[in-house]
Amino acid sequence: MSNIPSSKRELILATAKALFIEKGFRGTTIASIAEDAGIAKGSVYSYFTGKLDIVKALFIQTDEKSQQAVNNLLTKNQTTGSELLEQYLICEFQEVLNERSFIQMFLTDESIVMDTDIMAVLKECRINYHLSQQKVLIKAYGDSITPW
């Protein structure tokens, strides 16, 4: 699988994420995102209203990738019990390693942490995360785990 973004929106997100990690949220401008992506500044605004909108999109993108990874694990895997849980945990730990720098950037900027729209997106991502965990537990141990 290629790491080359397949659309301008994905290019903007990948570029913004790299710049946020390198320069921080405050140190990154829409102009610098556009310049590094090799596109016009107006192109960024045709997809996003501003930097916070880009951060929201990055969290949603990560959440979608995580859900897809869990769905792949559950549909392409016939293991159950502790073996399935072990595979799931390996997948989760790898995701944490992959996203560690972005998460650190997010946690160190109060303008992001205090934004109510960002917090609403994170709440939705957290709900999706717990639902994914529930799916894994049900596949690992059957429906008897459901009340828990």
What features would you describe in this structure?
This protein has helices spanning 8-23, 30-37, 41-47, 51-75, 81-107, 110-113, 116-141. It is an all-alpha fold. The radius of gyration is 18 Å and the shape is elongated. The protein starts with 7 loop residues before the first helix and ends in a 7-residue tail after the last helix.
User: Rough shape?
Assistant: elongated
- Tally the beta strands: 0
Helical stretch tally:
7
**Computed CA radius of gyration, to the nearest angstrom:** 18 Å
Q: Low-confidence spans: pLDDT under 50, at least 5 residues?
A: none
The description of the largest β-sheet is: none
* Binned strand content: under 5%
First-to-last CA distance? 37 Å
The run of helices and strands is HHHHHHH
By secondary-structure content and strand pairing, the structural class works out as mainly alpha
Question: Mean pLDDT, rounded to whole units?
Answer: 89
Q: How much helicity do the residues have?
A: over 70%
Short description:
The chain has 148 residues and is an all-alpha fold.
Output the keywords:
148 residues, mainly alpha, 76% helix, 0% strand
Draw up the topology in text.
Layout: H1 8-23, H2 30-37, H3 41-47, H4 51-75, H5 81-107, H6 110-113, H7 116-141
Helix pairs in contact: 1-2, 1-4, 1-5, 2-3, 4-5, 4-7, 5-7
